[in-house]
Design goal:
By secondary structure, this protein is of the alpha/beta class. About 30% of the residues lie in helices and about 25% in strands. An 8-stranded parallel beta sheet has the order 4-5-6-7-8-9-10-11. Strands 1-2-3 form a 3-stranded antiparallel beta sheet. It has a two-stranded antiparallel sheet with strand order 12-13. The two termini are about 20 Å apart.
Length: about 325
């Protein structure tokens, strides 16, 4: 078995801005695991919010030696980007060696398309209204907020896309007082979900705040070990493979979260179709899906995922799985 890791850069279709900053490119790591003639692939996006860099994640992957298995990987690497890329590459490798699709290996039903959110970049209210109007045909829009001027932006998006369902992502940018003040307006404007309104280390305040709109744990939920700390604070958990450390843990987290009564959102970092393909297995039948990374890119992998009115379609097995 041979493990190789490389860096890839994908240009974005336009500048993408959240409360933490702007970017014009997606920087990802691609892992290839070779065993005989078969090669499995996986992708991850190191995230500075969790102390990850391209260099640190590359080093984690390169330290792996010998034969690596999905079960053993759970002990060899912590939840995070490095384990995600390796885990997904191992799933892909097994699919190629067995001649079976990953959904079969995972004991799932055949995959189907899922409607995905489309994320609007943070901008002035006028420009966000224009973005919303351009994408008003989409059934689900996601808005990046988390600034002192959020209400004019939200009002503008609703005016631009009056029929779309709206998800709001505050990216830990609000205080408890700001969230309590905004909550009635979120209801008025038909917001269906609020992601991570408070910083992960300060979300105990959610225990004492009414949640008229379902609140989703993003930065507060990484893997199954996160679940005990979410009780009474959140209604939904956002599963991202770069947080869980791969498809193996993501499927386990989905099962555990649903058993504990949470709804599930399946999200992504800004990455290519290779990163979205395994996440689509987790997204099957979930009420909130946010796998729009490729829609934000100006360029993508060969055999990219197909997006249309039915949603994001399962990957061609030449890409993954």
């Amino acid at each position: 078995m041979r493990i190789e890791v490389s860096r890839d850069v994908f240009k974005l279709a336009k500048v993408f801005t959240i409360s933490r900053g702007s970017r014009t490119e997606a920087h990802v790591l691609t892992v290839r695991i070779s065993d005989g003639d078969a090669v499995g692939m996986g992708e991850c996006v190191p995230y500075a919010r969790y102390g990850e860099t391209l260099e640190s994640v590359t080093a984690q992957i390169e330290e792996l030696q010998g034969t690596v298995t999905r079960a053993g990987l759970l002990d060899q690497l912590p939840a995070g980007a490095a384990r995600n890329a390796v885990d997904c590459a191992l799933w892909d490798l097994e699919a190629k060696q067995s001649g079976k699709a990953v959904w079969e290996l995972a004991g799932l039903a055949p995959l189907r398309p899922e409607i995905t959110a489309y994320t609007l970049s943070l901008d002035t209210p006028e420009k966000m209204r224009a973005q919303a109007a351009e994408h008003a045909f989409r059934p689900l829009l996601k808005i990046k907020l988390g600034t002192p001027d959020d209400m004019p932006r939200l009002e503008a998006v609703r005016a631009g896309a009056p029929k779309s369902t709206i998800i709001v992502d505050a990216n830990e940018g609000w205080s408890a007082a700001v969230y309590a003040d905004l909550a009635p307006h979120l209801v008025r404007l038909g917001v269906a979900l609020v992601e991570q309104p408070l910083p992960a280390g300060e979300d105990d305040a959610l225990l004492d705040i009414a949640r008229p709109v379902p609140v989703c744990a993003d930065e507060s939920c990484h893997d199954r070990s996160s679940l005990p700390g979410l009780q009474g604070k959140y209604d939904v958990v956002n599963i991202k493979l770069d947080k869980t450390g791969g498809l193996t843990e993501a499927l386990a987290l989905r099962k555990a979260a649903l058993a504990e009564g949470y709804d599930v959102m399946v999200g992504c970092m800004v990455g290519s179709s290779l990163a979205m393909a395994p996440a689509l297995l987790v997204a099957q039948g979930m009420p909130f899906v946010d796998l729009d990374g490729p829609l934000l890119l100006a360029e993508d992998r060969d055999q990219p995922l197909k997006f249309d009115a039915a949603g994001v379609h399962p990957a061609d097995r030449a890409l993954w799985g």
